[in-house]
Amino acid sequence: MPADALLSPTTTDLTCIPSVPASASQVAGELVLVLGPGEGEAAGVDPAAWRSAQQRLGEVSDVPVVVEQTSDAKGGRRVTAVPAASTRDEARALGGAVGRFGLTLDGRAEVVVAHPLLADAGLIEAFVEGVVLGGFRPVHVSMPAGTESGQRSAATVAEPGALPARRTMLVTGEGEGVVERAVTVARASLVARNLANTPANIATPQWMAERARAVADRRGLRVAVRDEVALADEGFGGLLAVGGGSANPPRLVELGYEPADGAAAHVVLVGKGITFDTGGISVKPAEAMAMMKTDMSGSAVVLAVIDAIAAMGLPVKVTALLPLAENAFGESSYRPGDVVTPFGGRRTVEISNTDAEGRVVMADALAYADDHLDPDVVIDVATLTGAARVALARSMAALFATDDELAGGLRAAGASSGEPLWRFPLHQPYRTFLESSVADLDNAPGKAGTITAALFLAEFVGDRRWAHLDIAGPGRSDDDTGLLSEGATGYGARALITWLEGMDR
């Protein structure tokens, strides 16, 4: 399974059928019925088994429970009882549990879902997203025996940690289009997870640039990759400073999607791409460093989003910028006290903490977007501040926006997609915290961390409509539960796709 299979995660095959199969012999492998309240008798399930299911259902709140193994004239069935769902979040949670249940079947069984929620298109979409997300397991990455370290990019082998159910059939009269859209959106989250979970000795800036080229090739996107020589020639001082201490030099990837029939607007997406973050000379403690391979989650999300919207053919022009660097320490590392000039020379930055590196590389990309791309809207995504995680924990991301309409649209998209966003203020009095005695800006003033980080980025977007998503909290999961697996979550991908879908309305 080559490395680019990370861009095509294994998921259950979701289809719609008009009615519950009468016998297990009508499907390949084991038949598992997932039935909503009151549907057991209608589906021909043994009454005693269904009564047992209902009794056990009263003992749970929001997850399905496998309750009985039956065998009757219609064939062997496992019956799973699930509670009702009336909201998108409830439907998504139920779908996640069904997806997780499918992982226990060794990739063989076919799951049939009959439930009242399948009469509503919006609930079907959310349920399908849940099935795909809950049925995901991070890949196991390895290299064949005898592979030399210099060959790691080409030799990477990725295998799923577990396989989802072979097929999941939904008993519904709704069209396949509802399911197709939901699968595409959910798979974007899985692509982002796969990329961000790849170990940093493999997922270097060059490796991520190669994955971006693979996406461009399969979707017909425009792509340009600036290496360290081009970055120096064009003055991308932030990337060169942060990536200077690593043996893996930085890259800036630019991908472009433009619909054939014209675009409603031009949106630039910028994703923080720190492929590993030691903190640099301001080194992190060991316990804080363990998950830092996922500090490129922002770039993984942005790459997954442009891949998905190109597949969907959305009528909006999108440019994706991935500023990629490894924040290591060595003889050429940038230092506290250094003064760095990001792209365009509009501001100089005093480095008071090398562990506040994400905003420094993003300054390059944001300034480049403002100077050269002429976007209608700029949105960046980053695992930027620990302060955002402290404020909001793991269940929602911090949102900053230059206007209420943009903020409202993104918040609505986040609520609909199950990725809530909480708006923080761009509180201008705090701009004074960024003042430096030796440069225009201080990269880490140490006060109001989430807000001052956003105010720092705002210095590089000019007068553009701009939004900033700080996903430091929900971008990583410590647990393997519900819709999430341990590691990167791909948070923000579904919200951004949903928001982009609304650009032509």
Automatic annotation (TrEMBL):
GO molecular function: manganese ion binding; metalloaminopeptidase activity
A biological process term (GO) from this entry: proteolysis
CDD domains: Peptidase_M17
UniProt keyword annotations, A-Z: Aminopeptidase, Hydrolase, Protease
Gene Ontology cellular component annotations, sorted alphabetically: cytoplasm
Keyword Protease attributed: yes
Residue ranges annotated for the Cytosol aminopeptidase domain, each copy included: 353-360
Record family assignment: Belongs to the peptidase M17 family.
PANTHER family: LEUCINE AMINOPEPTIDASE-RELATED, PEPTIDASE B
Function: Presumably involved in the processing and regular turnover of intracellular proteins. Catalyzes the removal of unsubstituted N-terminal amino acids from various peptides.
Protein name as annotated: Probable cytosol aminopeptidase
Species this chain originates from: Marihabitans asiaticum
